[in-house]
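Cont'd.
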Amino acid sequence: MPEAESPRTHELASTFGPHLATVEKRAATALAASGFSGLLVHSGALLDVFQDDRTYPFQANAPFKVWAPVDDAPDSFVWFSPGARPRLVLNQPRDYWYKSARTPVGYWVDHFDIRPVPERAAARAELPGDLTGAAYIGEPFAELAAWGLKAMNPSGLVRRLDYARAAKTAYELACLREASRVGTAGHRAAAHAFRAGASEFEIELAFLEACGLREQELPYNPIIALNEAGAVLHYQLLGKRPPPEVYSLLIDAGAQSGGYASDITRTYSLEDADFAALIERVDQMQLALCAGIRAGVDWRDVQLRAHALTAGVLRDADIISCGVEEAVASGTTRVFLPHGIGHLLGLEVHDVGGFMRSPEGGDIPRPDGHPYLRLTRVLEEGFVVTMEPGIYFIDQLLEEARADKRAAHINWSRVGALSKFGGIRIEDDLAVTRVGCENLTRDAFAANP
Ligand SMILES: [Mn+2]
């Protein structure tokens, strides 16, 4: 069916207006509270490679993308003055070396006063003459000093906008659902390639092809780890050949839609039934954690509950020999689960505002002993978070544990036998509701069996 009539396009068209109204309201409130009369947001600048005539791939800034789904227009601007229609000053250089930004079409363009300009300097003429009450959000550039703005990236204003971004609009949820749909299609293809004996690099190619995305369009570099590479939490290599013996795959890869990300991890055992059973236990634990999510839940409690459940899995799998409470209290579970249980997700894969106590100021500290937790807020309706428990066999952390009192809790021969699998992580994206949560990832997998 034609794109313009698809249910998805209809949903985006019907929800974008209310989304933009929410963004405008948040901006107006934040501007008033911070003492500004207008907001100028930069899409981002192209970054040159040192002593070369190339640039790094362009990534539009999230504070810009929350206004408009434009990802190919460096040096463009959104100008917002409360009460007026937002203005999009779109940089479309006449340049026969490169394709300039597309002329916007679709469900969102009628909501903007769009002003194409042929160069960055010309953008100034499309903005109000007097910007002395306006705040700017974006990286600085040379001409900006002469534009007469009141402030650049004022922290109070930025903070209020970041805080509000945690709760997603219906439009944003539609984009996030689509990002999960695309990402799970990629995961299906990646799992198939793994079973067929592919290298890490070939698994990535299968993922990209199924998503219909090039690497720079992904929200983060995929983690595609065969065997013990799964123990490197942000493993960034892509082996061009499979190892001589293949045991397992840990793939953490997401897609994006309309600028919004999915963040999905699955782990597979090729043949080993014991490791497959451990993956299944982590999967069941992950579902149990998801079942406890609803508005009003303190994310710090989710982190602590995850460690208690992890201790049970480790003990049942004969990886540790002490009791659950002892495993948590002694820090033994943190040897096997050294990262946070999840984070906010949205325009950025690790979305902003995870520690903010209020729009005005103050941070909520992490629980003691959990230095990598990225979210400490109480969940609200519309928050989108990841849920990503794991169990890893990380040499560095195991060596540290072997040197102190935790050594007595760990079954070292069992750890030695499991180390070749690297680790397990199961990660879904959850949209928080008043009574529970919507599992964007499992729903997407179920819709594309
Ligand atoms: Mn994640």
